[in-house]
Structures are given as structure tokens and as C-alpha cells.
Amino acid sequence: xxxxxxxxxxxxxxxxxxxxxxxxxxxxxxxxxxxxxxxxxxxxxxxxxxxxxxxxxxxxxxxxxxxxxxxxxxxxxxxxxxxxxxxxxxxxxxxxxxxxxxxxxxxxxxxxxxxxxxxxxxxxxxxxxxxxxxxxxxxxxxxxxxxxxxxxxxxxxxxxxxxxxxxxxxxxxxxxxxxxxxxxxxxxxxxxxxxxxxxxxxxxxxxxxxxxx
Length: 213
What we know:
The structure is a single chain. The chain is of the alpha+beta class. The chain has two domains: about 30 residues, no CATH class; about 170 residues, Immunoglobulin-like, CATH 2.60.40.10. The protein has three helices and eleven strands. The chain has a four-stranded antiparallel beta sheet, with no helix packed on it. α1 packs across α3 and α2 crosses α3. The chain is elongated. The model has no long low-confidence stretch (mean pLDDT about 90).
């Protein structure tokens, strides 16, 4: 790119012999036009195109629920344009061709709250899941009153995350249980996260899964 302020083309605009001339403010610039791409569908571009529809489909399924609010908070904390842009940035590589989704790497939530220590699922079947953890409350990013929430994706609705209804369990309790609904599903992907008492801050999520026997 060249600056043309001292040339006869200063103040001009348009195309000339493979170059484009344009103005920004009071300055005139000239740059070479991009060459035509002989193969715009490279393997990398094709893979990227396959990822985007899956990510967009899942985000649309979250737009009317609590998870949209969680993503909007994450976007503000990380100074991203929107929860939509945060979700695409975090999860584009989770999706692939032929409806492939790596659920274990999916990030449905994020935020400045900490997850508790050593969170694990100690029991689980097609009716419920029981989680335990070590209470790490005592700081601004981890309060005993932070509430456990569980989002789920069922394999018969693979693009539709939902937050499950459950009794109140807090960080200070050290354990929590969520009941699973009946249905035609065979596998459920669970994402445990915490919300502050005011539900203005959230934590990242921890992944678990249950398959019917």
C-alpha cells in the first residue's frame, strides 16, 4: 500500500491497472487488487463452512432461555461483541461435518465465578445424577450461596441445550442432585455450572454424561 499525497493521483479514487485508489480522510492510498482465487473451496475453507451451521443452530436453540443470559454475561466480562460471538469463538472447533459435535469440549457457560474443587458425578442413571465437590467458598469469585445449575443436551435433540429444573443446591452444600426426565433419549450430556445468588455472574461448566443401560 502506498500513500499518494504528493502525486498527481492525490484525491483520486477508483481502479487503475490492477490497483485500487481510495481516500481515508484527507489522505489518498493505492493498493494492488487481490488476485482471483483459483480454488476458493480449499479443505480448510470447506471444513470451516461445515462448522458454522452447527454452531449457529445450537445458539439459536438457546436464544429464548437462561443460557443466552449466561453467554451475554460472559461476553461482557471478556469484552466481546455479544453472547453469539462469544459462543462461536469458544465452540467453532467443536462442530464438524455430518452433524458431528464433540460434546465433551462444548462450552455452554463461562464467567468469573470459580468452579468448586474436585467436582465429580458419584452416582447417575437414567433417572438422576448426584454430584459432589469440595467447597471452596470464601472469596469474591466463590461464595457459599452460589447455586448449582445443570444444562443438558439429549441425543434425540442434539442441538438443543436446556437448563434442568432441580432443587436448590449451593456451593456450601458440597453436593447436589438433578432428576432426569423420561423420554426416548439414550445418552444425555450434562454441563454443571454455578450462578451467583443474584444471577449476575456465572462459572464455566464441567462436563459429564450418562447413557441408559
